[in-house]
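Following up on my earlier message about flavin mononucleotide. Here are the inputs again, as you asked, copied directly from the submission form:
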Amino acid sequence: MTAQMKLGAFLWATGHHIAAWRHPKAHATAGIDIDHYVQLARTAERAKFDMIFCEDAAGLREANVGIASQTSRSIGFEPISLLSALAVQTSRIGLVSTASTSYNEPYGLARTFLSLDHLSGGRAGWNLVTSASPIEAANFGSTGLKPHADRYERAREFAEVVSGLWHGKAPGHDGQSFSVRDPLDLPRSPQGAPVMVQAGASDVGRDLAACTADVVFTAAQTFEEAKAFYDDLKGRMAAYGREPDDIKIMPGVSPVVAETEAEAREKHEELQELIPDDVGVALLSSYLSISDLWRYPIDGPLPELPESEGMKSRQALVVEQSRRDGLSIRQLARHFAGARGHWRIVGTAAQVADELQARFEGGAADGYNVMPSYFPGELNAFTALVVPELQRRGLFRREYEGRTLRDHLGLKRPV
Amino acid sequence: MHLAISLNIAAADKQAVLDFGEIKTFVRAAEAAGIDMVVISDSAEGLSSAPFEATTLLAALATVTDKIGLVAAASTVAHQPYNLARRFASLDIISHGRAGWHATMAQGSREAANFSRPEGFSDTDFRRRTAEYIDIVQGLCRGWDADALLFDKTGGRFHDPEKMHLLDHKGEFFSVRGPLNVARSPQDTPVLVLSGLSGPDLDIATRTADVILLEDGSTESAKIRFDDLKRRATAAGRDPDAVKILTNISFAPDDGPAATADRLETELRLKSCDGFNIQLTAHSALDDFADRVLPELRRRGLVREGYRGATLRSHLGLAGGGGQ
Ligand SMILES: Cc1cc2nc3c(=O)[nH]c(=O)nc-3n(C[C@H](O)[C@H](O)[C@H](O)COP(=O)(O)O)c2cc1C
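Thanks, got it. Here's what our run produced:
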């Protein structure tokens, strides 16, 4: 049998496209409708996805209320309660939630995820994040966002304590950030320990992942970027005595798929049209680190931008390209707001499968975290069109091989 | 009378570990008996008798029940108030308005030792901190007006920015800007159940709690306590009936049904409580209570038949929430 890719269904609000909720077929009330999530989880499970994945932020995503109020991302379920509900409404699919090391304590987090693991019969995973937003920081004290290095130092100690607790050690831990006296009061995990996921891209982030993660999510637009990240991360693992196969690297991908390429393009264009101009321009402004873009005519070209610190080389390239192609501010704004830096594929099932296959077989991915542009439509389209195509090619399972998330991912069971 | 049943997952009846299926059966039986709510304990000394943490268990139980209120214990030392408010607002939405939070005013040594507070808090600090904590959670839960979400696809207005409110809390122990990133929940705020009260906690409890759990004592002292609490609630500007006082009583299978019913009736008629939180000495005792004691109480007109409303607040006869 050829190697098979891993697939995650990344469930986020009404969809990953910024204007998803405005789509006529999008379920706009997703954030207050538990039955909707049960349906999504069952759809992903019928398609034999390895896991569903929930992002998390302990605060609003967008500080500008005028902008935020035109998106659906300011409200939603708290993900651990959401996944606990889904745990008993599904039977096979993995359940992975994000949770912050900056605003939790390791004993509580280890205990909560272990409980989710027991509720689901060994299908839980934790996506470790250090939380980079000052909006979140303001909900946990008055001292503001801690520096990157401090956050990662705390995260490293946090991960160590959680892992020790899951492995049934009596910690007696008295460290720089945490002190923990007792072992957990819950029995061991049905899968040995819940799965550890990470998505940090910085140098320290990659090192922490190489040392502790079972799964790594990333954002990569091009094959070269994805490949470079893949090789770099797998290369770091030997230093921690781990095999490259001990981590599954799953880049995010946002496909827009239809029976024909023309239909897929039309579907994508329909979503792009729904991006309110001020939302698009605000997101483009923050991406380009300029504050007064709204002053310029929206159907005109980008103004001359000062050479700024915020202007990274890739952004400079995009600006250059927009000049070359004569894109207006509106067109450029829609381009950024829609894709959010993630990999987007617009096309038929065969075209999408070709691209996924190329990165998988080219050694740039062990699988993908699928980010449907709106729910439930694009998750349904992916499971109806792309999954069968991948199965025909022998690239994805037709049946679950095991019971636990570790089984699905082909991860070793910790002793 | 109002009736709650304790679901003591932390060291229940010292039998084998309970799995989810057994707990589901237990809670559904309580629901079939028309009990107002189950109160799920959390955190055990030594190995727990069920492999679950209370809030995650509550979420799962919410999907397999329809009517019964579900209350989970959650420690103010184990959670940050912003995180706890999100969890319970979310649970209230998942359960369609049946969630409650059980907080205790008594400091547990286990939490302090495992949550990086080895020195714990002084009693007065813990009291002021808990009061501040409760105000934050309740404030956050009211941060979105009930009609804030518009879902206006053509107009591009998902919510009304005027109807989302910052908390901007800056206090002695916490600083929390808000708002919550969870919508207004069906009950506005989850039902707050408080226990572990000592004298200086009473004003905090009568100002903030929806339900107060008290230990069983003599009927006379319970009567004095009850009157005192209702007086304090009135002094805090609340309807005295907006705070329900439940007495913890234990029930064993071999307790006679008529004698038990007599005892509950006496306490209720003397107005020494609004109801009871039944602590079963074994899970199997639920059947005895439901099949033998409850019919007797119903015959005497002391317990309502079935559920009248859909939310826990409506079961308890409390105001708040649009889902009644
Ligand atoms: C697929 C994916 C999902 C992510 N989800 C979250 C999230 O839910 N919450 C969060 O705070 N950060 C999230 N991130 C961001 C990263 O986990 C990480 O915090 C960020 O890249 C900063 O870390 P770094 O400085 O090491 O790059 C996500 C990233 C990716 C690629």
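One observation from looking it over: The two ends of chain B are 19 Å apart (CA to CA). Hope that helps, and feel free to reply on this thread.
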